[in-house]
Amino acid sequence: MLEKVSNILKLADQCNTSVIAFICTDYNMVYSVVTTAEKTNTPVIVMLLPEHVEMNNTMNVSGFAQMTKELAASVKVPVGLHLDHSYDYRSVMQAIRGGFDSVMIDASAHELDENIAVTRKVVETAHIFGVDVEAEIGHVGLAQDCDGDKSDFYTKADAAERFCRETGCDSLTIAIGNAHGVYVETPHLDIARLEEINAATDVPLVLHGGSGIPHDQLEIAFTKGINKFNVGTEFLGVYYDAVTEYVKKTEGDGRPLKMLEVPMFVQERLEKYLEEKLKLSKF
Description:
The protein has 11 helices and 8 strands. The chain has helices at about 5-15, 25-40, 50-55, 60-70, 90-95, 110-130, 155-165, 190-200, 215-220, 235-250, 260-275, and strands spanning about 20-25, 45-50, 80-85, 100-105, 130-135, 170-175, 205, 225-230. Helix 2 (about 25-40) links the parallel strand 1 and strand 2 (about 45-50). The two termini are about 15 Å apart.
């Protein structure tokens, strides 16, 4: 069933765990997430990254929202729909009009005062329509640039408290040693900083850059305030490997209709990965 992201995050907090939010680009990925969530009875969140629409022509915003809602309606487990990193008011409003009831405004590249102003404007409008807003403070950079090791990017507890109080955001993305993409070296989450931020704020905390963080660190973080955990690069990699496997398996097979076999072949492998990944969520 389709459930508001804020309600899923509340459930995660009550269970002292985190929901996993998966970046998806097409039907195969969304179907696999929803199907595996139902099979394992584990709440999940399906996410769309706007740049995949704008730069990679994967699917339009409203089409993605409608597809996810229809799949969510076919199962009993809670499934959330969320728009990942969006950088301006216009694109957030476009997603809301397209059917998203949870969005992220990322103004973390700005100074704190400007980040607060941009986020507050989005929150004020989004809340009129009953839409949840995730925001970011600190800076979750790129793993390939070793940004996760740059403590200057890390979220500060006092700034997080002010940010949440002045913006009214519903959840907060923080930087504690995490980064987007493929890590050059094993990341080390700053758990002490996480505890400070969690004590200073009263909203669910979100961890981006989840691909490659050791599970033992994640399990600790999930008990210290992280209620939403994003996975993208790793999931897309499993998809790529599945397609590559199918191409090698059918090499020399001249049947044009073999393309019709790709979805179920891919879905089977995505679901196997998801079953294992969802064990991290202790609902």
